[in-house]
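User: Let's play a game. I give you a shape written as tokens, and you guess the letters that built it. Ready? Here's round one.
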């Protein structure tokens, strides 16, 4: 009798916790490297995204949209992107070491938001049908980095299935990784803070500069 009553009480409390949202499925963390404690993989249709990017590049209108949708970290990412025409001026000129002009192609740069989250921010690039950038939820509490898998899995890419990577321990091939900002252990965070450098400030901070360098290198490789 007492055992039965005890089980009923435990079951009732468990139901209350589940309905209240306090019970969460525990997943084993999957570290990406010594600084990123957990990541998930993405394998959306990169050919479809490449076609959408090509249409946006050819479009004569400035508001041509590109849509990208995937699920990761228990969240549905429904992203709407537009060509980023504000980062670089139309009159921008870059000259090489010999003084000659160098053609600048910024058509792969995008900005946008999460559909249904009007205060969210998304910026990044689409290269070879793969999006790489940052997604910031409107609440400001959750931020995600999306990167090409080749930055971390250099020896697992098959030229015949590029840009997909086949890695043991993963259910299916993937071309991208996504991780939350809170899962990044920045060893220089305290040094920047002591020096009065705030990554959340305006302008081209260290984070944006490093990201743009990586995007430019990706474009050059492809």
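Assistant: Ready! My guess for every position:
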């Amino acid at each position: 009798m007492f055992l039965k009553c005890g089980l009923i009480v435990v079951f009732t409390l468990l139901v209350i916790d589940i309905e209240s949202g306090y019970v969460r499925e525990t997943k084993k963390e999957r570290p990406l490297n010594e600084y990123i404690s957990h990541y998930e993989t993405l394998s959306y249709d990169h050919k479809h995204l490449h076609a959408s990017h090509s249409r946006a590049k050819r479009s004569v209108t400035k508001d041509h949209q590109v849509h990208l949708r995937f699920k990761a970290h228990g969240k549905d990412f429904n992203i709407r992107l537009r060509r980023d025409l504000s980062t670089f001026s139309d009159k921008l000129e870059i000259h090489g070491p010999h003084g000659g002009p160098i053609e600048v192609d910024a058509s792969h740069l995008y900005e946008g938001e999460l559909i249904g989250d009007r205060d969210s921010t998304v910026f990044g690039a689409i290269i070879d049908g793969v999006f790489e950038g940052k997604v910031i939820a409107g609440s400001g509490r959750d931020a995600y980095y999306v990167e090409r898998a080749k930055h971390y899995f250099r020896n697992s890419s098959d030229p015949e299935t590029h840009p997909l990577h086949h890695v043991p321990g993963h259910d299916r091939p993937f071309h991208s990784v996504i991780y939350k900002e809170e899962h990044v252990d920045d060893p220089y965070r305290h040094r920047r803070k002591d020096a009065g450098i705030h990554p959340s400030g305006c302008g081209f901070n260290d984070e944006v500069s490093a990201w743009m360098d990586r995007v430019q290198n990706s474009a050059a490789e492809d």
